[in-house]
Every structure is written in structure tokens, then in C-alpha cells.
Amino acid sequence: MNNFTSDILENMKRRAKIVATIGPSSDSRETLSALIEAGIDVARLNFSHGTHESHLKQIELIRELSVQYDKPISILQDLQGPKLRVGTLPEEGVPLHAGEVVKMELDLDNRTMDFIDGEIKTIFMEIPNILHCLKPGSKILLDDGKLEMEVLEVYDRGFKAQIILGGQLFSHKGVNLPGTDLDIPGFTEKDQEDLAFGLEHDIDAVAISFVRNADDITCIRDFIMLHKPSKQHMPIIAKLELPQAVSNLESILDVADGVMVARGDLGVETSPADVPVIQKEIIQAANQKAKIVITATQMLDSMIENPRPTRAEASDVANAIFDGTDAVMLSGESANGKYPVESVRMMNAIALEAEAHIKEWGHSYPPVIGKNQDDSFAIAIAARELAHDRDVTCIAVFTQSGRSALLQSKARPQVPILAFTPSEDTYRKLGMNWGVIPHLVPFSNSLEEMIQHVEEALLVSTSLKKGQKVVFISGFPIGAMRSTNLALLHTIGSLNN
Questions:
Q1: CA of residue 222 relative to chain centroid, distance
Q2: Residue among 83, 85, 139, 190 flagged as catalytic
Q3: From the candidates 71, 239, 403, 412, which is the catalytic residue?
Q4: Tens digit of pLDDT for each residue in 401-420?
Q5: Is there a contact between 78 and 12 (Cβ–Cβ < 8 Å)?
Q6: Closest Cα to residue 324, out of 366, 356, 275?
Q7: pLDDT tens across 425-469, in order?
Q8: Looking at residue 2, what is its pLDDT?
Q9: Of 270, 297, 421, 462, which is the active-site residue?
Q10: What are the chain's domains?
């Protein structure tokens, strides 16, 4: 066994998970290996960039290294969605000056910016079905809000706009229309092709961009059921980037498996001043509904160019941990930055230090137990209390779908959560869950057989010894795919006594 995993409990002290985006800076075997050793749990593949061929190479390498390090690295496929961008511009970009009037015109043929009507600049857009959503006075932001314009006139091919906040505009930069409800399909033809590819190659979770309401999630789930029913339990993560998504948060959480606080677009579509409060609201709501929550975007942004983060960025990561996020995410820092491995090491160090003070500054939002919910929530909380009351080393969860482990994660026990599953799909996706250390074991047909399999795994892969106590939770009868209904206080080695 690789020395890196000689003792699971010793090597998995951090509870919050780290998501790292894989890109040109991190897609080599050497760098990916270093990222795993530095602590990543989830590899995010951004399908706004790259080809199916390049992503397949990444998937195959991640799977190979996951086996080598005996650590499940979940693969999160991030679909592009209806990305709104300007078209192709000269390589040096185009200067836009405050007060200047420009034309923005639809173009799906990848034309380069041109000059018409004398000195008026015409910039082409890769955005279908936009014009009927605009009216004079509509605000448009470009390049993550760095540039701003106001619509003056809408005509059949495009619109005229006056530059409010100028700057240099480059090819394919993003376009945001705050306050405008765009009638654009959320699950594009490109997304369908990309998701079909991801399902074919057994990705572990999928993130959906620009979610507006619960129907956007249902559409994805129907697509999965149609194309690969065996992946019906694959987590669907709703990226919350639009004000409509925040307004529909409760209904989105009812159907999604998790959410991502995509603070970049949220800060452009709303206001940077609103984002901290929105982030806390999302994390609290997701935890109370027992859904995965990932905090993302610009967490250590300065490490794209520098070997150390700013103090404000370190505080940002720590506060997300204190708020109760399940995972923190690196984007450009690991995808195309100069210091991808150092970024993961730094995020790991910040998370560990924050978790060392979680009792003082942390907020816990355990699942809300309602009368109409099954007993699994109550069992998870009961297992946590039992573990805290007795001298228990860990909580051992036997799970087939992964739901029992997720619920135990949301109960936020102070002891490690070891999840044992006979399903390789479940084993891989459990890497996303806060505090959960996944382990593959043979299928069990009885309680005694389950305990035996888990004991053997504990004694081989951890520092646990006979005589130490663990809390087992499972569905009973074993192997019947029942919801969690059993919590058992067990002493290691007592089965054969």
C-alpha cells in the first residue's frame, strides 16, 4: 500500500473537502500526483474549455492515480451552460472609452470586430435569443463587470449602447445582464453532448451552470435517466450564479443533490456587497436540507500569479469553513495559475487551522428533522450523540447509495466518519462529502458479515485496535437497500468473543 494512505485516519484530519480545477497548469501526471499528495478530494473538469479528447486523458489519468494512491478522487464535470460571450476581437483587444457609443450585433459565424457607420465600433456577440430581452436603459456588464454599458436602442441585428465604464475588451469575454430575465435554454446542445460524454466515461458528479429554477435540475435528471439509468443517483450540483436561482433556492434544493456558491457571477449579477450574506444563506439552507454545498470562485485568486495568498483570501477560506461549507474550490489557481500545488497546500493549511477552532467560531446547521421525513436524519444525529457520549473512535457507515454517509456528514460529528460501500460508483462520489473517508468492502448479506468486513478494513487501513469502540450505522436488514434505521455501539474484536 502507498505510504500516503498507510493510515486513513492520520492522513485525513481535514474534514472540509478541496475541489481543484484541472487545466493546463495541472493536467500532467507529475502535477496531478502532487495535487493528490497536497490534499485534493475532487477534480473539477471545466467543459467551457478543452475537447472531449483532452478531458478523456484527464479522466483516465485521475482514475489511474486514484488507484495508485488508494484515495477516491471524485470527478466533477462542470457544464458550460448558456455562456454569454462577446465574439472574436483583435488579439490586442479593443479599447472602449466612457461615453463612447458602440454597436453589439449577433454573430454565430465567428466574425472579427469591424467598423461600420463611420467611427462606430461593431462588436459581435455569441449570444442567441438576446434581443427581445433588452430595452433602452438595460445595463450590460462585460468581463466579470470590469466594463459596463447601457442600451440606447435595439434593432433587428443588435443594439446600440453607450459605454459607462470603459477599459480594454478582449475576445470571448463574458457578458452579464443584471436584472434581465433571459429566455435562453439552460441545457444547451453542447451541454447535452458533453454530459453524454461524461456519462459514457463514468464521471462522478455534474455541475449545472446558470440554474434558474428547479426545472433546470429536473431536465438534467431526465437526461441522465434516458441515457444511462445506472447513473441515476449521480449527484447533480446546481451552480448558483443568478438572482433567480437565489430567489428559488428552496425549490432548487428540493431537487438538486448539492449547490455551488458561484460568487464570481453572483457578484456581477447582484452586487459584491450582497455576496457574503447570500453565501451564508445558501450554506445554511443547504446544510439544513442535507445537500452538498461547495464555496467557489476567487478563494485564493492572487495565487494565480503569487506563491502566497493575501490575508483577506485566507480569511475568506476560513470563514467559508466556519459557515459550514462542505468543500472549498480552486478555479484559475489550479487550472492555469503559476502555483497550482502551492494553492492546494495553502487551502489545506487554512482549512486545518480553521477546523482546529471550529468550536469557537463555527456554525453548525444540522438537517431539520420533520414529521414527514424518514428516520435516517434522526439516526444520523443519534449516532453523533452516541459517539460524543461514549469513548468512540469513529462512526462507521455502511452504505450502498451514499445517502447514509451524506446524512452522517451533515450531522457534523466530532469524530471521523468512515463510509464502507461495496459500490465503486458510491466509493468515488463519497469523496465530496465533508468529513467522510470512503472505503471499498465486499457486499454483505448479514449484520455479522458487514461488521466483519468493516472490522477487517479498519484494522488494515487505520490505527484502530481491538478493544476500541465505533458506532455502526446502516439500513437493516443488511443488503436490502433500506434507509438508515440502525445505530450500533460496537467494540472492535468483540464479534468472535
A1: 21
A2: 85
A3: 239
A4: 899 999 999 999 989 999 99
A5: no
A6: 366
A7: 999 999 899 999 998 888 877 888 888 888 887 787 777 788 888
A8: 41
A9: 297
A10: 3-82+186-358 (3.20.20.60), 94-176 (2.40.33.10), 376-496 (3.40.1380.20)
| 325 belongs to the catalytic site | no
For cell 444520523, name the residue.
Answer: 380
Radius of gyration of the chain (CA): 24
Angle between helices 403-410 and 376-389 (to 10 degrees): 50
Residues 3-35 have pLDDT tens digits of 344 455 555 689 999 999 999 999 999 999 999
Cα 383 from chain centroid (whole Å)? 27
Rounded-to-integer distance, Cα 155 and Cα 157, Å: 6
Q: What is residue 159's predicted lDDT score, i.e. its pLDDT?
A: 92
* The C-alpha cell that represents 232 in the structure block: 441515476
pTM of the model: 0.90
Q: Note whether 442 and 422 are within 8 A (CB).
A: yes
* C-alpha span between 382 and 377 (Å, rounded): 9
pLDDT at 108: 53
CB 382 within 8 A of CB 395: no
Active-site residue, selected from the candidate residues 14, 15, 44, 289: 44
**Catalytic residue check, 239:** yes
Kindly state the percentage of the chain with pLDDT values over 90. Answer: 58
Q: How confident is the model at residue 293, as a pLDDT?
A: 97
Q: How does residue 481 score in pLDDT terms, banded at 50, 70 and 90?
A: low
| CA separation for the pair 313, 300 (Å, rounded) | 5
Per residue in 73-83, is it b (16+ CB within 10 Å) or e — as a string? bbbbbbbebbb
Q: What is the pLDDT of residues 118-150, one digit of tens each?
A: 568 888 887 767 888 889 999 999 988 889 999
Distance linking the first and last C-alpha atoms of the chain: 30
Taking the C-alpha atoms of residue 153 and residue 160, their distance in angstroms, rounded to an integer, is 5
